[in-house]
Amino acid sequence: MFLLKLISQKLCAITVIIVLSLTSLALCNQQLSKAYPGVHHHTDDLERSRGYKFLITGGYRPKVANLTKYLVSISHANFKKFFGDAHFCGGAIVKPNTILTAAHCISKRLYGFQMLRSIIVIAGTPNRLQKTEHTQIMKVKRVAVYGESKTEKSVDIAVIILQRNIRIDNVTTGVLSLTDHPLRAGEKCTVLGWGRVFDHGPMPATALYVDLEIWSRRKCQSYRNFYAPSLLCAGVPDDPERDSCAGDSGGPLICDEKVVGVVSFGIGCGTPGYPGFYTNVYRYLDWVRANLAYRLHINYILMVKCIFFLWLL
């Protein structure tokens, strides 16, 4: 009886501690949500209680979707119910076997062999829910994320190396050139993707386009709680609802058929007074080029093990 009474008292104490902890966290979260607007990396990880806002007011589906050939869907390998419904990020083909995307799309908790098996890259499918003769489903060979061994760890850029080349026909698939010059304020650019058409809304089947303009660095820096030197920002001040949203992450910001930015994050989706933030590709051009799959990447640890094994023989 004494033992049961002791266990009961301890369980009651633990329950009280858990309840108090959860209450404190809820109050803290409530205070934070009042103080700051909802920042998200264009994913559905963070829930907000804000009302729906139509997003791509100025967006469109062009009659000739000539930029869609550069776009890929990064998806979980296991679809939920039907083809294409596990899409979570976009990316751009910058070499037949290399995809440029956002670092936050390649979650660190998925690093290693399991991550390589758990995601796929889908190319050649403007309608992400429709598998056609042009659809190419590619497996991942390896990934490179900026900042893994550097001090600048907040840079949101990564490349995915595929196990085999995407067949490039320049109609359903194409290789997007990297920018070769720094952007000027006012330049007209286009973002495209399968992201949500409004905050918490549905994802479209066919990729949508939205035209934006590059903001000056000084104007971007005025958003000091969000801006970093790795970023550029873009939007349309007179039409703030033009923006990227959840599901567009990792997709390309394209100017003159060159990728100049990678969709990183936004303050909500189409929130008046706020631009969208994109990783500045030109700033990390040397890193991107160094990680394009031009050379043979040697696993030195495996090589040493093989040499040691042969020596034992």
Describe the structure.
- The chain has five helices and 14 strands.
- The chain has 313 residues and is an alpha+beta fold.
- It has a six-stranded antiparallel β-barrel with strand order 9-10-11-14-13-12. A six-stranded antiparallel β-barrel has the order 2-3-4-7-6-5.
- A hairpin with an 8-residue loop joins strand 13 (258-267) and strand 14.
- Mean pLDDT is 77; it is low at 19-38 and 43-57.
What secondary-structure arrangement, pairings included, does this model have?
Layout: H1 2-35, E1 39-40, E2 71-76, E3 87-95, E4 98-101, H2 113-118, E5 119-123, E6 136-145, E7 158-162, E8 177-178, E9 188-193, E10 208-214, H3 217-221, E11 231-235, E12 252-255, E13 258-267, E14 276-280, H4 285-291, H5 300-312
What is shown here, in short?
The protein has helices spanning 2-35, 113-118, 217-221, 285-291, 300-312, and strands at residues 39-40, 71-76, 87-95, 98-101, 119-123, 136-145, 158-162, 177-178, 188-193, 208-214, 231-235, 252-255, 258-267, 276-280. With 313 residues, it is an alpha+beta fold. Among the domains are: 68-175, Thrombin, subunit H; 177-282, Trypsin-like serine proteases (Thrombin, subunit H, Beta Barrel), CATH 2.40.10.10.
For the record, give the distance between the C-alpha atoms at the N and C termini, rounded to a whole number: 66 Å
CATH class of the domain at 68-175: Mainly Beta
Class from helix and strand fractions: alpha+beta
Q: Give me the number of helical elements.
A: 5
Q: Using the CA coordinates, give the radius of gyration.
A: 23 Å
Using the 3D structure, state the CATH architecture of the domain at 68-175.
Beta Barrel
Question: What amount of the residues lies in strands?
Answer: 25-35%
Protein name: Trypsin II-P29
GO molecular function: serine-type endopeptidase activity
Main location: secreted
Subcellular location: Secreted
